[in-house]
Amino acid sequence: SMEAKFQAAVDIIQKLPKSGPLQTSTDDKLRFYSLFKQATVGAVNIGRPGVFSPIERVKWDAWEAVRDLSNEEAMRQYVDTLNEFFENASEEVDIDALLRGPDFDPTIKENLPKIL
Question: What is the spatial distance between Cα 88 and Cα 93, in angstroms, rounded to a whole number?
Answer without folding.
Answer: 9
